[in-house]
């Protein structure tokens, strides 16, 4: 949930970080974790798998290998093809994700169909959403600007869900009539 | 939530003519907590808030503040309570347009016979705290909605009240300014130990609360308690 | 407690341009009212100062006849009039070096000298001067009478020196001044009228002050609601409101004082009711000043608190106004009923003779008029409640009035009082004028009568008069009263003159010097005349000197077309009765003018006075409308117009204020496509509806009051529809003016871009 940068764009993120100058793989992981990782640091395996993929595609090149053992001794630099790729990635809009068939909707329809109190279900969900929002609000108050932006992103999404919950509870009767007919 | 609550409303009923606004609302507020009252439009949130604050007398049910029954009090006593123990932040229309911001904030103190100088000194401190120290000398008509609302928060807090009642305090603001008002309001309330009763229909604003109460059709559902 | 009042005071003076304008409006409104009240309060004092100066200069001596001495003066009145203005003229002759000097003079004028008032000096210097100058007998003007010797700055007065004035025609004085106060200048009926006029004019002013106090009231109420929210209780809000109103009222008092002082400086320029006043005379009576200074702020505060009672200033009053309390009718009816009860017993006459009756009448009038004001809101409510929907403009106006009719009711109340009072008074005036008009002179025979006393040579005087430009003819005789020695109280006149003169009075037939005629008019039922026969004896003059009617006296019929209406008389030629032997030689000359010469009368006056300063010229007028009534009526109309203008101005302020408060709404309505015409109509309806009710009520109450006043004055009750029309028309004009003046503001406020200017 908290992982804002999806794994599919991890490569582009690394490329973006490399644009400011060559780095060691270890450096990259540290910077990434600081900026975007939140509570979930990257595994080394993930890092090196991604880097080797980029190397293979010609988007990065080895800038030099320092003496010693281990992959962490390698320094990577971005190629011009890599810079182009980052630009293209940033310029491409993300596909909006309409959760047309989410679990919650399924649950509600099932509750209505089986004659269970759908309103209670909604209220429980609502309370849970709000609990999370409260937690995020608190974190936001304590965190720095990056933290605040991330939390707000999540908060706005949660708010949207919550509004949907409210709307649905106001329309439960309509829904029940539709579903049962 | 230990000890006895500061403000308790039990089974409130209130109708405006034939229109029922409250039909059995109950609520307890403990010292220092922030309670969000949410619910659909027209469900009776504002009416509940007004009953809690002693502005409106319910038809039946009781509101007890600090062990005292509000509906039995004469108007003067309830006014005194509003002056000394409660603070108010509404959506708009609460600042006196004739007075400067600092005078507006000093107003509750002056009603309490605090000398003007002293009242305005304290008012200026509160304006600084709410990051609107620079508009102190302006009139409400000359400041932005967000600034005005923060001035109103300063006025609500200047008497260090026990409870701050806020009805859609961010209703007329964009999200950035709304958040700013809420952040400053809750921070200041926590610092002074004031409880906040917050009516809102914005979940993000409700996110600043400790607890949520939902009003539907004039009845309350205290979710945290029921579940 | 005090701090809240001070806080309210702060609201009055703080608050940016908007706040200031409101306070200013109130202050100016109250100020105008206060100035008028102060003016009214000065009237008794001003009249009193006049009277005191009049007494100080009076040449009055009671008791034994004074012997002439070094400290005495002879003084005689020169009775004359210029145009319509009476002249205070005196002939003086010092009898010694210590002769008293009248107030305003440095020294007594010697023969050939005159001291004149500034107004007379200006008249003499003007192109009209030659019409008056001969009356000073060619004397040189050597000085000007000081203010302390004059009733007012506009008074025409002179002291003419003489060295021939004898004690027979003059009063001998050793000092000037009249010890006892002069009698009341107005009769009881006039006093009653004046009291009622004051009531009619001052009540609307009071109403106006009440309305002015509420300028910006709605806005203030809303602010009070905001204060309630943060914990001001009802008493605190009342105190805050009190403080605020009191400041505005006090500013108004100050403004009123200044306006009054400024207005006072203009007083000497005005001559009203034939009275001019010095600025210094217009001094309000101190107790009244104190009363005004206390009553105006008190009235302001009371009005405001009463208005506050109508709106429930609750913490949420910002958005949810309390429903106005239902208006109760009983006390509203009680007021006019009590007023009528006070007036009713006076109807039928005789009631106004005693002083308390004036107060009773005034109190009754006040109650009736106040009753109209009290009934008005109730009636407006009644009407407005029943009105339904209509076109947009109409609907906006009606809804607005349903929500708050009190504001307009207050203003219209002023109009209603003014109109009702005017109608009542006009009816009374119309009736009283009709009655006094019947006592006019018959000007078809002669237009002026010249009377001389003393050693006048009649033929010479007649020749002078006939030679005066503008004189078409003159008939003059010596005139002496005659009575039967043991007869009844009736007297008849003995006229002595040439045959030519006598022929004007009767068909003499033959006439030669030495003849005597007895004239008996057909209508006369005089016993004296019927008992008088040739050879009979009559007593002449005041001392009853006996005279025998010559036996040759013939009875002749009176001439129908003579200089006077036919009357009983003895006509004698100088041969029958030598006028030189008469103790008092009074002459009466009837003068006819060339039609259309307005200056002829003035020339006659000059001619006569130049020859004999103590002669009198009386102009005959067809209608002897009481001069005072005419001027009082003019004063009343002037007052009503001023009052209505005041009220119209305050209505205008009210309308503008409402427009400003609702500018957003207005702009929105326009943006929605509401035609501005509809909005204009809504403003019009909003003022017209209450005024319509007010005028109907005013006409009703005015007619009622008029009828009662007529009954009191014992005059036949006739309704003067002209007065009704005029008064109601003036009221209606005030409304149209208000609406017309508010339209530009409406146009400005309803530009669609008004939406943004919030
Ligand atoms: N002064 C009043 N006169 C008449 N009816 C009223 C009044 N105040 C509230 N009501 C009615 O009482 C009910 C509850 O109103 P209330 O203002 O408490 O709702 P709310 O929950 O605050 O709504 P919102 O979210 O729109 O502010 C509504 O049906 C409203 O119409
Ligand atoms: Mg509400």
Automatic annotation (TrEMBL), chain B:
One Pfam match: ABC_tran
Domain ABC transporter per the UniProt entry, residue ranges: 7-226
Single GO cellular component term: plasma membrane
Protein name as annotated: ABC transporter ATP-binding protein
Alphabetized UniProt keyword annotations: ATP-binding, Nucleotide-binding, Transport
Family annotation (Gene3D superfamilies): P-loop containing nucleotide triphosphate hydrolases
GO molecular function, one term: transmembrane transporter activity
Record keyword Nucleotidyltransferase present: no
Domain of life: Bacteria
UniProtKB/TrEMBL annotation, chain C:
Superkingdom classification of source: Bacteria
Keywords from the named record: Cell membrane, Membrane, Transmembrane, Transmembrane helix
Subcellular location: Cell membrane
Membrane topology: Multi-pass membrane protein
Domain ABC3 transporter permease C-terminal intervals: 196-303, 639-744
InterPro entries per UniProt: ABC3_permease_C
GO cellular component: plasma membrane
Predominant subcellular localization, coarse grouping: membrane
Transmembrane parts of this sequence: 24-47, 59-82, 189-213, 245-267, 287-308, 329-347, 359-380, 636-656, 691-714, 721-747
A Pfam family that the UniProt record links to this protein: FtsX
Protein name in the entry: Membrane protein
